[in-house]
Amino acid sequence: MRSTARADGAPARFLEAETTPRTTTPAARWSVGAPEAGDYAPWRELFRGYCAFYRVPMPEEKAELVWSWLTDPGHELEGLLVRDTDGTPVGLAHYRPFVRPLHGAVAGFLDDLFVSPDVRGGGAVDALLARLRVIATERGWNAVRWITADDNHRARSKYDQVATRTMFVTYDMAPATD
Q: With CB atoms counted within 10 Å of each terminal CB, which end of the chain scores lower, N or C?
C-alpha cells in the first residue's frame, strides 16, 4: 500500500485529491500534481531525459513498467509532474515511503527528480520540492531523502538550499548469482 490511513480511516494518498489535486506556486507559473492518464507521452519524454542524464538506457519496456507502477494505486511508487501555464509537463518527481528503523519513523525517498533543461532555473524544481515537502507533512514523514551524483553541481547547489547534506556514502550490492 502506498501510505497509512488518515484519521478518518481513508487511505492518505486520497487526501491530496480531495484537498488539493494540483497546487500552483504563488507566481502561478507552475502547477504540480500527480500524473494523469493522458500524461504518458510527456512523462516518458521527461523520464527519457532523466535516464539520458545518468546514461542509463530506457527501453520502452522500462518506461511502461515504471508508468504502470505510477498508475497502480497499490504500488508504493508515486509521482508528481510540474506543469507550465499551458499545462505541459516540464518536470517529474518519483517518490515513495521508506521506514527508518534507527529513528522509529517513516520518511519519503525521492527516487527521481528531473526538470526539462529549457525551464531550469525558473522555479519548476522549487515547485516540485515544495509539493513533496507538503506531502511529507501530510503523511507524517520525518524527512525526505534523495541521492544525486557527486558531479551534479547545479542540482547540488539547489539541494544545499533546501535540504541538509548527509555524510552517508551509498553502496549497491548485486544479488547472488548461483
A: C
